[in-house]
Amino acid sequence: MTTWTALPRQTAVSLPMEISEEKNRVVGNRTPREHVAHIFEEVIPKLAKKDVAIDVMATGDGAQVAVEYLRDNWDGKAEKNVQAVAAGCGYTWSKGEIIGEEDGKFKTFWGNRARAYIQDYQPLETPLAGRGEMGCNCYSTGESAILELVIPTAYKSMLRFFQLVNDVPGYREIPDEIVQVDDEEEVMDGDTGKP
Q: What is the pTM of this model?
């Protein structure tokens, strides 16, 4: 897939094709923030039943904006309908910036029903350190270079997580505690405290 700015040009130093706000942008979807709000406020209410269960899968800037939207609208429809979140994250996420430092319903939901899929070279689904920073369990995507490949690489794992949340009434993630040992990560069981 070629992006707009990567379309062929007359010469190597020619300016990219002009982007027209009217011809090239869709009203209500011009930015990631507008797109997320449009989906939650226009599309879902029109196309889904009121009691629909929603799983959110997003990556990069879209994931950050989606999580911020959920956080800011948690006491409304989002709290009633969203059952799980799988966020494909780059290296710059911070729980304090995105989830918020204050304890509350959304922060509790995030710790119990969200997973962060982090860009990392380790095999897919390898538990990673980061719960303290991210506020939820973190797993490797197996994709360490290109953020846009997080979902194509990890979507099956994300869907298995959504199915688990759907199949187990009252599902809650058991917090993974990852301890750094001699430059290697060791997974600690959240219940027993043992590897």
A: 0.79
